[in-house]
């Protein structure tokens, strides 16, 4: 095997574990509408870096994604920085009351939301709702 092939295969193998747990998309204005118009099921996570409830939700979401790769493969996860976009048109139109709010959207419909809940069963229920809409 030549050096170029070896380096290419090694780089690909090293990147593979990270591809399976891709980071959520960072919100920018227009992104949610763009993904909804593309037919995606969108899971919004309104969060702040300093929020302990948000961190707990993030740990649960990551664990659930690790247990079931179908979540990552079929749902568009978007993180909305509360400090930057808490008073944005998106947050206002969805009547987001605070950080640590999780919302699932499909088309023009809100399919579910959780506010400040960190239980694995509640978050799994919301993610299952999103998965059902995405593959159904």
Short note summarizing the structure:
This protein has 136 residues and is of the alpha/beta class. The protein contains 7 helices and 5 strands, in the order αβαβααβααββα. The model is unreliable at 15-20 (pLDDT under 50).
Commentary on this structure:
- The protein has 136 residues and is of the alpha/beta class.
- The chain has one domain (23-135): Glutaredoxin.
- It is 53% helix and 21% strand.
- It has 7 helices and 5 strands.
- The protein has a 5-stranded mixed sheet with strand order 1-3-2-4-5, with helices on both faces.
- A hairpin with a 2-residue loop joins β4 (101-106) and β5.
- α3 packs across α7.
- It is globular.
- The protein starts with a helix and ends with a helix.
- Residues 9-136 form the Thioredoxin domain.
CATH topology group:
Glutaredoxin
Would you tell me the overall average pLDDT? Answer: 89
- Note poorly predicted spans: 15-20
Name the structural class: alpha/beta
Fourth CATH level, the homologous superfamily? Glutaredoxin
The CATH level-2 architecture is identified as 3-Layer(aba) Sandwich
Largest sheet: 5 strands, mixed
């Amino acid at each position: 095997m030549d050096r170029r092939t070896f380096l290419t295969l090694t780089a690909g193998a090293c990147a593979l574990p990270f591809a399976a747990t891709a980071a959520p998309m960072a919100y920018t204005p227009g992104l949610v509408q763009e993904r909804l118009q593309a037919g995606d099921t969108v899971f919004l996570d309104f969060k702040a870096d300093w929020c302990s409830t948000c961190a707990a939700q993030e740990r649960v979401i990551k664990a659930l994604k690790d247990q079931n790769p179908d979540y990552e493969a079929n749902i568009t996860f978007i993180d909305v920085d509360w400090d930057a976009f808490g008073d944005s048109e998106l947050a206002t139109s969805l009547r987001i009351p605070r950080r640590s709010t999780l919302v699932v959207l499909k088309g023009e419909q809100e399919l579910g939301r959780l506010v400040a809940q960190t239980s694995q069963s509640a978050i799994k229920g919301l993610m299952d709702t999103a998965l059902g809409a995405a593959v159904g």
